[in-house]
């Protein structure tokens, strides 16, 4: 895929994103034996290999009854799973301690939804991570590795949701919550911020201001998928003289502290160098 990047994409991504961390039902790995070629592919490459059950047939227990969704098109399920293997699973397997980490934290279920999940309040859910046992991904009916917006949106979602499993298992980094405590928004108001306002507060996106956990997950996601992460969120703007520029650089100072805390947290608790994972992902974009 051509490496083209759109600032506009980030605005869309953060405006629409929402995720949940709800309890899941038991027996999530129960899978019926099937001779269907797609089901055999899933069994061989996901269930038998990693213990992951992939749910692509619509089952209402995976979606809140008040939400609107479209089931995935069957012919697009395997391309989506190949995409996930290329950009999510394999990069972790390629780094030191990555395979042990992945196998110990990979969710028991991956649920695929064809469309976004549309809420009654007009917001859209891009994905969910439920108690470390299930990740739900949406919009797979648009799968296209040549579509920059779709690729970045999916990568941002899967890395974000997988990062929730990290903090659910190992908690947040020490003192993470004290880095920018005044910048978090009240419940349900994060979407009123612009990207620039979030940056001045010390956050990579408006959505990251919604809670400590979302802040952590957003930093992990942006580190992994954003080609311009350092230019946008770490490197200082030169020759700052106006108040807005100074505030952005102050925000970057806060993000840098969170970034260092997140990288150290992965290294110390899992032995995984998240920046090595980033290198592999970026080389494939």
Q: In words, what does this structure look like?
A:
The protein is of the alpha/beta class and 285 residues long. The protein has helices spanning 7-16, 37-50, 77-93, 98-105, 148-170, 195-201, 212-225, 229-233, 243-270, 274-284, and strands spanning 53-55, 109-112, 117-118, 124-125, 127-130, 134-137. Strand 5 and strand 6 form a beta hairpin. Helix 5 (148-170) packs across helix 7, helix 6 packs across helix 9 (243-270) and helix 7 (212-225) crosses helix 9 (243-270). It is globular, with a radius of gyration of 19 Å.
Brief write-up:
This protein is 48% helix and 7% strand. It is α/β, with parallel strands linked by helices. Helix 3 packs across helix 10 (274-284).
Mean pLDDT: 89
Give the number of domains.
1
Rg over CA atoms, rounded to whole Å, is: 19 Å
Q: What ranges have pLDDT less than 50 throughout 5 or more consecutive residues?
A: 1-16, 23-27
| Adjacency order of strands in the biggest sheet | 1-2-6-5
**Which H/E pattern describes the elements?**
HHEHHEEEEEHHHHHH
Characterize the biggest β-sheet: 4 strands, mixed
**Total beta strand runs:** 6
Distance between the termini: 6 Å
Q: Classify the fold: give the CATH topology.
A: Collagenase (Catalytic Domain)
Q: Specify the CATH architecture.
A: 3-Layer(aba) Sandwich
Structural class call reads alpha/beta
Q: State the helicity in percent bands.
A: 40-55%
In DSSP terms (H or I, runs of 4 or more residues), the helix count works out at 10
**What is the beta-strand fraction?**
5-15%
Q: Any idea what the shape is?
A: globular
């Amino acid at each position: 895929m051509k490496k083209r990047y759109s600032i506009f994409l980030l605005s869309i991504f953060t405006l629409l994103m929402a995720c949940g961390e709800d309890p899941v039902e038991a027996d999530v790995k129960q899978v019926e034996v099937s001779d269907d070629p797609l089901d055999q592919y899933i069994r061989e490459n996901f269930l038998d290999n990693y213990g992951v059950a992939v749910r692509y047939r619509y089952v209402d227990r995976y979606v809140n009854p008040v939400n609107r969704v479209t089931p995935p098109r069957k012919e697009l399920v395997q391309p989506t799973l190949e995409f996930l293997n290329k950009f999510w699973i394999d990069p972790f397997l390629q780094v030191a301690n990555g395979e042990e980490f992945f196998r110990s934290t990979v969710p028991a279920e991956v649920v695929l939804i064809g469309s976004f999940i549309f809420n009654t309040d007009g917001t859209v859910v891009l994905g969910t991570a439920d108690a470390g046992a299930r990740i739900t991904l949406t919009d797979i009916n648009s799968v296209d590795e040549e579509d920059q917006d779709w690729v970045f949106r999916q990568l941002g979602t899967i890395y974000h949701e997988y990062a929730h499993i990290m903090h659910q298992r190992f908690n947040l980094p020490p003192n993470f919550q004290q880095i920018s405590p005044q910048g978090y928004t009240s419940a349900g108001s994060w979407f009123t911020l612009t990207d620039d306002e979030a940056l001045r507060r010390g956050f990579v996106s408006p959505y990251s201001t919604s809670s400590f956990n979302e802040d952590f997950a957003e930093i992990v996601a942006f580190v992994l998928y954003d080609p311009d992460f350092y230019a946008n969120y770490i490197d200082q703007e030169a020759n700052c003289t106006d108040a807005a520029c100074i505030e952005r650089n102050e925000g970057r100072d806060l993000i840098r502290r969170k970034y260092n805390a997140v990288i150290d947290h992965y290294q110390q608790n899992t032995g995984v160098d998240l920046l090595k994972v980033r290198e592999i992902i970026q080389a494939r974009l």
